[in-house]
Amino acid sequence: MTALTPPAESLRDLNDEPVSVETDAGPLRVHGIIPAGLAGTLLRNGPNPVNPAPDAHWFTGDGMLHAIRFHEGGVWYRNRWTRTQELARHQAGAASKGDFVPATPDTESHGTANTHIVWHGGRLMALEEAHLPIEIDPLSLATRGSIDFAGAISGPFTAHSKIDPDTGEMLFFGYGNPERLSAGMTYGTLNASGEATRFEHFTAPFASMVHDFMFTATQVILPVMPLTASQTRAMQGGPAYAWEPGRESRIGIWPRAQGTTEVEWWQGPSCFVFHAMNSWEDNGVVYADVMRFPVAPLFPDIDGNPPCTLDGARLHRWTFDPATPGRTFTEQLLCDIPGEFPRIDDRFASKAYRHCWFAGHRTNDGETEMFSRIVHLDMRTGQQDIYELPAGYLTSEPVFVPRTATAAEGDGWIMVVVYCGLFGLSEVLILDAQELARGPLATIELPVRVPNGFHGNWLPADCYAATADAIWG
Fold this sequence. Notes:
mainly beta
């Protein structure tokens, strides 16, 4: 990587443009040294609209999966659209929606599948929060179809399901269920084999967008914040989701063993969280670390004022102490670097943890350079370790890959897809997870651009057949 002068246009605007082809390529050109024995696939998911409306919301694009596979010292690339009913409509000429309004689940079962890609119970699943998961072939990226877990689950299924590293259980929720834009919600669990073991309906204090949630060894934590939903507002031509700052935040906490019949609603300041870092409990006190916005970005307020940008989220700690009167939670700022897309060593999900990473912003001559750095925080020492991307580069969400299955927390690599605005192409960086500032150990040139997307995961090679069929090109 070399320092570049970024183009005059916004980097984010440039990389919001979709790519029009599906590609198989490899082996790819590598600069530096790929860690010995690294075998598996870095998977990313994001919106790549086939036929976008001029005012289409970023969240509504057709899902495209990107796979960067590491096999016997070489690297291969493949991208595929997820074959949904929405994709077929768009390929037939229908335009993507201008507003983010989830479809009624029973009339449009696929959605866009554009947000996350998760492995559980022997299945690879493409997720977006308004519809059921869609199963994906881990080698070909072919779409196998939506999953209702033998008819046990219906309606929305969060893009941010959680997997307990000790039991293998997956926890999930859905909002706007069974009626879209309502306060109706669902909560459920799948066992380690991917079989549904719980599916419950409950009602939130008010209707809102709920993108992420948290869990501990014994509790579930669900944030309901004032990015409110309104069917009436949408039918009158207003936004389906709008920021309503007059409302406070309400956080539901319930015991995993008993379920939502035991939910308690805590209250706190008006704010918004797209993504949580981690949560845990200690002597009856629940802690949750989240990337907190003072105002919800990307959506207008209820008066029709335009949305703010993504440049204001900072890592905060919420504390839920049963000794606090009135079930009011407290907040503490942990890091003043703005950013988004927080990740941890997933083996420490629901536990007190030490290491975390996120895509950070920096300020240059008074201007915010979005997603221009990769940040590592040591929560025990407070030390910050930052890799500053060269001018003209834009990072995606960092994904942690442990060195071995039994390595110490944070011992491994950060993998990240970055966009080079000058050349209009993308690269994959591999960095030492605890020495980011040293720069990439390896840089892999991708044959096509990977548009701004949402989330990804590392899929170890032992999850699929690591044979000659695992490579392309």
